[in-house]
Design brief:
This is SDR family NAD(P)-dependent oxidoreductase. Keywords: Oxidoreductase. GO terms for molecular function: oxidoreductase activity. Pfam families: adh_short. This protein has helices spanning about 30-40, 55-65, 80-90, 115-125, 130-135, 140-145, 165-185, 200-210, 210-220, 230-245, 255-275, 275-295, and strands at about 5, 20-25, 45-50, 70, 95-100, 145-150, 190-195, 200, 230, 250. The chain has one domain (about 20-295): NAD(P)-binding Rossmann-like Domain (Rossmann fold), CATH 3.40.50.720. It is of the alpha/beta class and about 300 residues long. The chain starts with a strand and ends with a helix. The strands form 2 sheets. Strands 1-10-7-6-5-2-3-4 form an 8-stranded mixed β-sheet, sandwiched between helices. Strands 8-9 form a two-stranded parallel sheet.
């Protein structure tokens, strides 16, 4: 289930050899970002890991040894990210590749009862954080004829009940990646979007496995959309997307038909889910839990 569909960039330049390339990875202290840092470092890249967890990101970089640095920064902090990108530039002399990977999920909630601050927090990290990461490095990437990867999600085109801030943010990341891909045309640099289904990470376990309602919402996914890949497999997908300058990558491959046909599928699916008794019951249970928590 780790097979992917990688779309090449037509006229996007030669394949990228990661040897001696400088790669910035946000969310680099855990999950996909951690695995990607290890993988690219083994392939000869200089790796700059950025993460809000200062101790963890420095430990990850120290474990890699030479050709790695760990920088503590919150991607929602625009000035902080600019300073971090400048630190990478000064330390390694260049930036070839940027991977905007950092992301969070909200606790399940309906739009009606969602804490507005939680909505803002998720978009600040997932969407604005991707912009904050990519923009200050673009001149470097263009000069190096490098590549940008923004990590979206299959949630970008899936129904968002119970977790709308995440879906909204990842749909925004997709559009950011599409804009970059077009705008970089002719510069020699390229950009692409990676879409993942369910990846085995601590974030996934906390959202879908350890939360009863989250698990029930996750159970609505039919086969093969419910299939999972590991964080290491996800990292291999991103590494391949970088090396091939892929315009897009989707994993697991079972999501690809949905990705391609979403304009038609979602019209029918949204209606189906809006009248589905299981979804209505889950929505009621979710709102009851939120109200009960607030009453405590």
């Amino acid at each position: 289930m780790m097979r992917t569909l990688l779309a090449p960039v037509i006229g996007g330049g030669e394949r990228i050899d990661l040897q001696d390339r400088v790669v910035v990875i946000t969310g680099g202290a855990a999950g996909i970002g951690d695995e990607l840092g290890r993988l690219l470092h083994r392939r000869g890249a200089y790796v700059a890991l950025l993460d809000i967890d200062a101790d963890a990101v420095r430990a990850r970089a120290a474990a890699l040894g030479v050709r790695a640095v760990g920088i503590a920064v919150d991607v929602a902090d625009r000035a902080g990210v600019r300073a971090a990108i400048a630190q990478v530039r000064e330390g390694f002399g260049r930036i070839d590749v940027v991977v905007a990977n950092a992301g969070v999920v909200p606790r399940p909630a309906t739009v009606r009862l969602l804490d507005p601050e939680e909505f803002d927090r998720v978009l600040a990290i997932n969407l604005t954080g991707a912009f904050n990461t990519v923009q200050p490095a673009l001149d470097d990437v263009i000069a190096a004829k490098g590549h940008v990867v923004v990590v979206s999600s299959c949630a970008a085109f899936a129904p968002g009940m119970g977790g709308s801030p995440y879906m909204v943010s990842k749909a925004g990341v997709e559009q950011l990646g599409r804009a970059l891909r077009v705008e970089l045309g002719g510069t020699g640099a390229t950009a692409g979007i990676v879409y993942f289904g369910v990846v085995e990470t601590a974030m996934t376990h906390g959202t879908l496995d350890e939360d009863e309602l989250g698990a029930d919402i996750g159970a609505l996914l039919p086969w093969p959309l419910d299939q999972r890949i590991t964080a290491r497999q996800a990292a291999e997908v991103i590494a391949g997307a970088i090396e091939n300058r892929s315009a897009r990558a989707v994993a697991p491959v079972g999501w690809e038909p949905y990705a391609l046909l979403r304009g038609v599928v979602n019209v029918a699916l949204d209606h189906k889910l809006s009248v589905d008794k299981r979804v209505r019951t889950l929505t009621q249970r979710l709102e009851q839990r939120i109200l009960a928590d607030r009453a405590r």
